[in-house]
Design brief:
Elements: H1 8-34, H2 56-59, H3 64-89, H4 94-114, H5 119-137, H6 149-172, E1 177-178, E2 181-182, H7 183-208, H8 211-215, H9 225-248, H10 272-281, H11 293-319, H12 327-349, H13 354-381
Antiparallel strand pairs: 1-2
Amino acid sequence: MNLQINNPWLHRFSVLTAVSTLVLVGIGGLVTSHGVGMSVPDWPTSYGYSMFALPISTWLTGGIFHEHTHRLWASFVGVLVVALTRWMGGKKSRLPLTVIGVVEILLGFAFLKISPDLKGAGHFLSGIGSVVLLGGIVWVKNKPSAGRLPVLGWTAFWLVQLQGLLGGLRVVLDSQVVADVRLGTAFGIFHGCLGQGFLVLLAVIALMASRWWVQQRGCGIKSNPAGRWFLFATILIFVQLLIAATMRHQHAGLAIADFPKAHGQWWPDMSAEAVAGYNAQRVEVTTSEQITTFQIGLQMTHRIVACFILLAVSSCAWKARKVQSLKPLAFIWLGLIVIQFALGAWTIWSNKAADVATAHVVVGALSLVTGALGCLISFRRQTVSAASPEVPFQK
């Protein structure tokens, strides 16, 4: 079977999809920073309207703008991902996309008929199914991409649907509590973390669809420690992401309102009496919730992990300084971490201003992506791939 080893337009489209997803992460960050995730209380409809038919007069009101824009942009990214999956899968993807689309549409109509309580799920499935079906019946002549790209495309296809579902469940189950955990908070944390993982996947696809990636085939070099440091630092950043998502989705404001000290000390007193005193002294306009010992401990952990990340990425830059393919990326990564560190401090000094906190989220996402790509480039240079037959680069 002829495989499409490289297509510059596929690479450009995959970059567009990844950049659009980064924008989506930023919009989602604004929603959380402004605390307006429930400004549109129904899903997948918006105040009873199809999300694409919500009146402009309603859309431009208060926090509805951020949440509704997030939903519309997420739909746009979903369409891009379906197209990307179709493109990389070639003719072979036509049948599965068609079948999946038809099944999702039928399930959607079935849910609409079964119960009014399943109306949201019915609209969601029938809407997604229509887009997927359209992807299956058009654009039938292109060759499938080589290597792992089709598999990665299908992974992105399922993840974008899961991500949309999690975003919806975060709304419709917001008030439900299970084992003292508010489901809206739990789904929000998972939604935020999966969104950044999804962004990394699309960035990986963009890299593997590039001409540079094909040219590196067979250019193996001896193992160098930079790759292991890239992996270690990237794992640290992902752990930091989990901590940050947990902090943000609790909507408790700043558990520690000063920096570099914490409640006036290098390590704060976290006794029950001290925490009660902190709550008595708090003056915040963004929340009325009380802070807890757990939240203070979580923010201190966040600060400590940030220091370890700075040290780890600095080590990456030092060890990669003589590796031509990694040196520029390593120093860009270090620059991002320094900016991220400064934004973290600014977030505290600005009393968690929404624009600053959102910039902190976006630069964090870029840092995670940069680390993941650095790992991929490093290990690509250390292995000789003998995957698929190659054809010349297509101009």
